[in-house]
Amino acid sequence: MTNFNRRKFIKTSSLGAIAASTLSVNCQNNLNQSNHGKYLGGFKADPLPSIRAAFIGLNRGGTHLRNFASLNNTEVVGLCDIYESTLKRELERLYQITDNLKNLKSYWGSKNEWIKMIDEVKPDVVFISTDWESHTPMIKQCIKKGCHVFCEVPFSLELNELWDIVNISEKYQKHCMMLENVNYGRDELMFLNMCRQGVIGELLHGEAAYIHDLRWQMDHDETRMGSWRTDFYREKNGNIYPTHGLGPVAQYMNLCRTEDNFHKIVSYSSPALGRNQYSKENLSESNSWKNISFKNGDINSSIIKTKLGRTILVQWDETSPRPYTRLNLIQGTRGTLAGFPTRVALENGFEDITKDHHTWIENENLIRLYEKYDHPLYKELNEKTVKSGHGGMDGIMMYRIVECLNNGLPLDQNVYEGCFWSAVAPLSKQSILEDGKPQEFPDFTRGKWKETEKLGIVS
Length: 459
Ligand SMILES: NC(=O)c1ccc[n+]([C@@H]2O[C@H](COP(=O)([O-])OP(=O)(O)OC[C@H]3O[C@@H](n4cnc5c(N)ncnc54)[C@H](O)[C@@H]3O)[C@@H](O)[C@H]2O)c1
Fold this sequence. Notes:
The chain is an alpha/beta fold. α3 crosses α14 (393-407), α10 packs across α15 and α13 packs across α14. The chain has 2 domains: 3-179, Rossmann fold, CATH 3.40.50; 183-451, Dihydrodipicolinate Reductase, domain 2. The protein has 16 helices and 15 strands. The chain is globular. The structure holds nicotinamide-adenine-dinucleotide.
């Protein structure tokens, strides 16, 4: 008997179509909805001494699966992907990590198998790592069926769906965390630590970005797996992937937590030229994206103004030939911390390395800065998580999720933060439509963000 057979796959029949899409309604209508429950800013769920998890979507989701399964007090009970080959691949990898899989059931073969999985295995938590349009319907169903949800970025590109996510989480009193792994990067954790210690004084301005040439994804096969983002460049406008750069800056500034919050955004995009050019030069005649026009400008620049009047530049570009960056800059009255490449300027200098802010602390001199300011979580976990994905941030994120669930602690990112960070997509689109007109962020907390404690430096 092969390993594969021993694992007792449960091949399930496909379900009838479930109405999964949400009607587009004006977000303000949702403000008046009365079907929401208690505010979830510092929400503590009952402790889960052993966490039973199911996973939907196993490409990016495979990383979450392996990181979860490698931790104590966890059990994988459900796996679902449309494609059997993806599922088999991830199962093979999973069996290298754990043999605690006696209750595992696997599902594949249609877009709705995940519903059957949730009904049958009744997990405590669900990890969703599918394309953006499926996030909201999956989140809603999983929460309704009694699960806490962890969903990949962004939650959604539509304001009404973000409100749906808030409302359903509040109504059923469940965690719904967007999996913003970048908040657990070494530099991001260190910058948070330095901001909390007041090293750069009062915070004034941040810069965030997702600048990553992903044109190669246009060379797709018939599944469009991994390449579906291209449809969004063709049809949408604005910053459609804002959260990797913005999440850390928002937490440096304590946005949505006691001190400050998102207020308004203005946005412009450049012409959309690069994708068409690339398609002409690189794609086969049979490729559906050959020679087509794209609507979404190659580079989007948005500026957020916070309630305290701070500013955040958020840029997005997945098309242009330039090196990867998330900018990761935070500027205060006494210095500036910046990423890509990592560099720090402090008004009063740093040890015997710099005298003042006219010179960056950079390159090999950063070692001394890391020694002094590395976040305790990074110091404690780095050796264990360094190979967990994206330089270790994926493993630290999962460690914290499991620790918080095991002990009934508030998560490091609440549902409102995920919604505010994602809301840059629809609001930037609207600003562009109105030639840069400022757009107000809806207050997903309904005025309660001042009640949420600042994210501390957990160790
Ligand atoms: N945080 C990060 O660093 C990071 C990195 C990559 C992707 N992502 C995010 O992860 C998500 C997934 O991205 P990806 O690159 O893995 O996409 P992908 O297309 O490569 O993989 C998606 C997987 O989900 C499966 N899937 C889709 N619909 C499904 C359904 N109805 N039922 C079961 N399985 C389904 C697909 O078969 C595929 O295996 C996106 O939200 C993306 O933005 C985040």
